[in-house]
Specification:
Layout lengths: L6 E2 L24 E6 L3 H5 L1 H10 L7 E5 L5 H9 L5 E7 L2 E7 L2 E4 L7 H8 L5 E4 L20 H8 L7 H15 L5 E4 L6 H16 L1 H10 L5 E4 L7 H9 L2 E2 L4 E3 L4 E5 L15 E3 L3 H24 L5 H6 L1 H15 L11 H12 L8 H5 L2 H19 L4 H13 L17 H13 L2 H4 L2 H4 L6 H17 L1 H9 L3
Parallel strand pairs: 1-10, 2-3, 2-7, 3-6, 4-11, 7-8, 12-13
Antiparallel strand pairs: 4-5, 9-12
Helix pairs in contact: 4-6, 5-7, 6-7, 7-8, 10-12, 10-13, 10-15, 10-16, 12-21, 16-20, 16-21, 20-21
Protein name: Mannitol dehydrogenase family protein
Keywords: Oxidoreductase
Enzyme class: oxidoreductase
Length: about 500
């Protein structure tokens, strides 16, 4: 699959793409919008958009096409790239022993990025839109770290409550659109979170209804009663796009400004609770169920939690990718010990898969050398990811009287990473929305380790849990004194 001059990706050139590149068989001019998706990153295009594309390849769901959207200024760059290629995307599947590519076309437009979100509101108010999807990251739902409810003190929430017709958040825009739909006598849309949050649909409901209640209690009651927010579990490893990925797609003969690479695995488990219809995603591999909880628990704890177990050690030791971490004997040994002794015991089986079998699958997926998933990407936003993926298991382990030594080591590695430099002396660039605060506390924790656990917004009362706090103090002291490798060897029983 190569060409002397790459073909510029566009509707007009689809038939000119190199042989072996799959492409839409459907007439894209016949597609009608049914979904607005907020957050058009790589994951959405490799996952939810792909499932819809597969349906369209079978002549189905032609009235469910996607309108892309974003609410942050940086989304404008992606909008420009995708509109310039008719919203087409090249997906490159990287199996350990093979590569393949296809061009997908389920997205038909990308809405303007505006501070007041008026175009987004108008689009979501259109009754043809029956689902609003979101991939806005785990930390993007304005959850109060103390209560777990909506953070009504956040400046964005205060703004949207005071200016409901000119909101700055995706959720404020959803509330404004639902207000217009209610006034017009239209049914609401379903809100479909595709982020890695336990009970992501319930959290989305909490955010939307809670925000509406601050400005219009009657509207909040209507949304609560009439709208739907199904829970879902999404799974595929999708690295960021950089120069290597751009070179790869050109080598395949395509000029695509925003290609996506992904592993040869996808899973999507969705609660079948929609208020205005849905595509038949189950016909192309998704699972509809009344109980998403067990699936999301297994995935969030073993896969997402496992990513956090690996990433900070990898950063400190200058190991560039997750696959490289799995090939690093000391990091891989730590990963397996934490998983087997402290994560897997707090995961229930799902139909057809035990936690141990799922862990073996994750070890194979993480070890795929073709997936250049950087430790930096995986370590991003640790303040949300440790809180969501690991610390709930720490609490369960403490309640059950189980081991938390590995968890304490993982948190100590994160604390050391947030000091801002690797063990070879190179700088770690800011990698968390709270980076400045984390760095300040991390440096203080070098002399007084408990300072790290006293961040109540992250750890709550865990600083007062002796088995965890004492182990954390020991590990962080050892890491600063003798280094990460010494700590990993000691944990594995070799030091």
């Amino acid at each position: 699959m190569s060409a002397t001059r790459p073909i510029k990706l566009s509707n007009a050139r689809l038939n000119d793409l190199p042989e072996g590149i799959a492409r839409p068989r459907y007439d894209r001019s016949r597609l009608k919008p049914g979904i607005v998706h907020i957050g058009l990153g790589n994951f959405h295009r490799a996952h939810q958009a792909w499932y819809l594309h597969r349906l369209m390849q079978e002549g189905r769901a032609l009235d469910w096409a996607i309108l892309g959207a974003g609410v942050r200024p940086y989304d404008a760059a992606m909008r420009e790239k995708l509109l310039a290629q008719d919203c087409l995307t090249t997906l490159i599947e990287l199996a350990p022993d093979a590569r393949s590519a296809e061009v997908i076309g389920a997205m038909i437009d990308f809405l303007p990025i505006e501070q007041c979100n008026s175009a987004l509101i108008r689009a979501m108010a259109d009754p043809r839109i029956r689902i609003v999807g979101l991939t806005v990251t785990e930390g993007g739902y304005y959850i109060d770290p103390g209560s777990g409810g909506l953070d009504i003190r956040h400046p964005d929430i205060i703004h949207d409550a005071a200016h409901p017709d000119a909101p700055r958040t995706a959720f404020g825009a959803m509330v404004a659109a639902l207000r217009l739909r209610r006034s017009a006598g239209s049914v609401p849309f379903s809100g479909l979170s595709c982020d890695n949050l336990r009970g992501n649909g319930a959290i989305l409901r909490q955010t939307v209804v809670g925000l509406a209640r601050l400005s219009d209690p009657d509207l909040a009651d209507w949304i609560e009663a009439e709208a739907a927010f199904p829970n879902s579990m999404v799974d595929s490893i999708v690295p960021a796009t950089g120069p290597g990925e751009l070179d790869l797609v050109r080598e395949m003969g395509i000029d695509d400004a925003a290609p996506v690479t992904h592993e040869n695995f996808r899973e999507w488990v969705i609660e079948d609770d929609f208020c205005a219809g849905r595509p038949d995603w189950d016909l192309v591999g998704a699972t509809f169920t009344a109980d998403v909880h067990a699936y999301e628990m297994m995935k969030i704890r073993i896969l997402n939690g496992g990513h956090q177990v690996l990433a900070n050690a990898g950063e400190l030791l200058s190991v560039p990718t997750i696959a490289d971490c799995m090939a690093h004997p000391a990091i891989a040994a730590m990963f397996r010990k934490v998983q087997v002794e402290e994560i897997v015991p707090y995961v229930d089986p799902v139909p057809g898969t035990s936690p141990s079998e799922y862990l073996a699958l994750i070890e194979r997926r993480f070890s795929n050398p073709e997936i250049r998933d950087t430790t930096r990407r995986v370590a991003f936003d640790g303040s949300s990811r440790h809180t969501g993926f690991l610390l709930p298991v720490v609490r369960e382990a403490l309640a059950a009287g189980g081991s938390v030594e590995g968890f304490a080591l993982v948190e100590a590695l994160w604390a050391r990473m947030c000091a801002g430099h690797r063990e070879d002396g190179t700088q770690i660039e800011p990698n968390d929305p709270c980076w400045a605060d984390l760095m300040t506390v991390a440096k203080a924790a070098r002399e007084r380790p408990r300072a790290w656990l006293e961040q109540e917004g992250i750890y709550g009362d865990l600083a007062a849990a002796p088995p965890f706090a004492e182990a954390f103090e020991r590990w962080l002291t050892l890491i600063w004194k003798d280094g990460t490798m010494t700590a990993l060897a000691k944990y594995a029983g070799n030091g």
